[in-house]
Structures are given as C-alpha cells and as structure tokens.
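Agenda item 2: protoporphyrin IX containing FE complex prediction
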Amino acid sequence: MVKVGQKTDEIMGDIIKEHRNNLGSGKTGSGESGSEDIVDVLIKLKDSDSLPMSITDDNIKAVILDLFAGAVDTSKTTTVCAMVEMVKNPRVLAKAQAQVREVFKGKEKVEESDMEKLSYLNLVIKETLRLHPPGSVIYRENNKESVICGYTIPPRTRVLINAWAIGRDPQYWEDPESFKPERFENDPMDFTGNQFKYMPFGSGRRICPGISFGLANVCTPLAHLLYHFDWELPHGTTPHTLKLSELPGLAIGVKNDIFFIAAPPPAA
Ligand code: HEM
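Presented output:
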C-alpha cells in the first residue's frame, strides 16, 4: 500500500475540485482542449450512481495515485536503460539516431503523431524491455489446484513469474545477453503478453492498462534526446566498461548514476 502524504492528498483534492468546477460550469472536461480526462470520467461515474457500489473522492485519489505509481518509474527506468544500451552499442545508436533525424528533418519540434514512423527506435524499446523489464516479477494467485511442469500448485498459492529471467533465457532467445533490436524485426511478437516468453507489460486480465501511454512516455523523450544531441561517453569510459547495474527487487531500477556527454549535433 502506498502511504499518501498530506501534501499529495491536498494536491489531488485540488485537482478533483478544479475538475468538478469545470464540469459544473458546463465544460465536457478538463483535458486537452476541454475534452474528458480520466478524473472527469471518475467524477461522472461517482455522481451517476450507476455502479453497483459507491465510490468516494478517496477512491478517485487512489486511482490517480495508482496511475502515477505505475507510470512514472517504469517509463523513467525504460528510458534510462534504452539510452545506456544505445550508448553501449554505438551501431544501434547511430541507426536509431539516423532514422529520428530523417523523420524529423527540418522540424523545430518532435511531434508525438510522428512517433510510429520511428520503426527502429520502437525495436530498440522492445529490446530494452526484454532485457530490463521494469516490472521484473509478476504476481498471480491461483483459484484452483493447477499442475505446471509436473509441479502441483495448491489453490491460493502466490506464484511469482520472473519476467526478467524469462527475457534472458537461452532456451527462448538466441544470444540472450546481447542487445539486438533487429531480433524483433519481422517478428509479430507484441506487448499483449500472449507469448509468455515476452511479457514486459504482464499478461491476461491484469495486464498493464497503460501500455500505449507507457510506450509514448518512453519513445517521446528518447526521440528528443536523439534528435537534439549527439551522445558520447565521458573520457576514460568505453562501451565495454560502462556498467548498467539494476537494483534488485520486484520493480527494477537503475542502481548507479550514469553520465554521458551531450553534444550539439553537427550543423546540417
Ligand atoms: C514502460 C512503461 C510500463 C511498463 C513496462 C509497465 C509494466 C507493468 C507490469 C509488468 C504490470 C503488471 C501486469 C500484470 O500483473 O500482468 C503493470 C501494471 C500496471 N500498470 Fe504498468 N507499465 C508501464 C507503464 C504504465 C503507465 C504509463 C501506467 C498508467 C498510466 C501504468 C499503470 C499500471 C497499473 C494501474 C497497473 C496495475 C494493473 C492491475 O493490477 O490491474 N503502467 N505495469
């Protein structure tokens, strides 16, 4: 359970109040250009009494907090790991950067709508999530007795699925420790968790509800970083000595600070 500080509680209370005022003044919502956002949807649900159980402002705050907790660290860790893997693999960095600069040529700003044109950067993100899934361990509890690989799992057993280890298992992945985005080229494997060898967003009915948002949260900053800067290692560090140590745990984080030199790109 996440402990909410008083300040956080106040901020979320103010957000709900602001949304309520906007709805009260006849607006559809408080989202971009007046559209509905998740808080509007939850307030409308609460007020409509259409649910079998009633929900409170505290429930709405809990959902907002859940979304933040689920969104921020996962996206940040994936972005950092992707940058580290690219700098460690200069061939991959050069290829991803060339595509980003080609797609956004002449534009002042990287536009979100162009992200799907970045096919190679999307493969880089896929490969990053194979080696460094931020939700490294997925939990499940079984209702009924099940037999898996000859082991009997009694009902109500908490089963931990180690997505991190599965992503590096040589039984399923060729040369698993190498960072090779091309392995996903022409491979229909997606993020739906239907193939159990790759489930960075989990699988089944409890799969991450923020997949699209999460991918956009990673792809957009990476595209900006590659578009606006060239990246080098500090003097004395080589791709081979650069170490990415992960914090052990159910949600992976990056243990050590990693420094890169950002240089302006060559003039076009
Ligand atoms: C790169 C980004 C992300 C990764 C790798 C990721 C990964 C995961 C994983 C592995 C789970 C557990 C799924 C399961 O048990 O089957 C999960 C659950 C969850 N994620 Fe994400 N996530 C990301 C981004 C986000 C974002 C952006 C949001 C919200 C906007 C979000 C909200 C949630 C929530 C609410 C759950 C709990 C779902 C439930 O228990 O029913 N995640 N995520």
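Discussion summary: The pocket of protoporphyrin IX containing FE is lined by residues 66-67, 70-71, 74-75, 78, 134-135, 138, 200-203, 206-210, 213-214, 217-218 (CB under 6 Å).
Owner for follow-up: CH.
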